[in-house]
Write a structure and sequence with these properties.
about 130 residues; alpha/beta; Rossmann fold; 5 helices; about 30% helix; about 20% strand
């Protein structure tokens, strides 16, 4: 029996959609994390096939000025431990304009504005 593709669902925003039913219907094993540190701890043991996470732009001196967003460390770690993982980013409509700066540094499969359209979520996770 082939194992189900593994989805890391990193929930750091109240706008993050509930993906439990969608991941089941798509045949994905879903691991939900309430912060990236927990996901990073699991990364070496069980690398994901797909990651969906909330994007927050690093305004001002946030994130030590060296990073574009809250996702830089996670995405660098994925390059090392799960280079084939598809990255799906959820971004607030006001912050989505900053995602291209992140996309200059990392391969991003899809960017979805929140509140997320269910059809776009399904397409990005399929």
């Amino acid at each position: 029996m082939t194992p189900k593709p593994l989805l890391y669902d990193i929930i750091e925003s109240p706008a993050h959609p509930d993906l439990s039913r969608l991941s089941d219907s798509l045949g994905l094993e879903r691991l939900a994390f309430t912060n990236q540190r927990k996901a990073l701890g699991e990364l070496k043991r069980r690398p994901p096939d797909v990651v969906i996470a909330d994007f927050f732009f690093g305004y001002g001196n946030n994130y030590a000025g060296a990073n574009v967003s809250n996702l830089d460390v996670l995405l660098r770690s994925l390059q090392r431990f799960a280079p084939a993982a598809r990255i799906v980013i959820l971004a607030d409509r006001h912050e989505i304009r900053h995602v291209p700066r992140l996309a200059e540094l990392f391969d991003i499969h899809a960017v979805i504005a929140v509140p997320a359209d269910p059809a776009k979520l399904e397409s990005a996770l399929s």
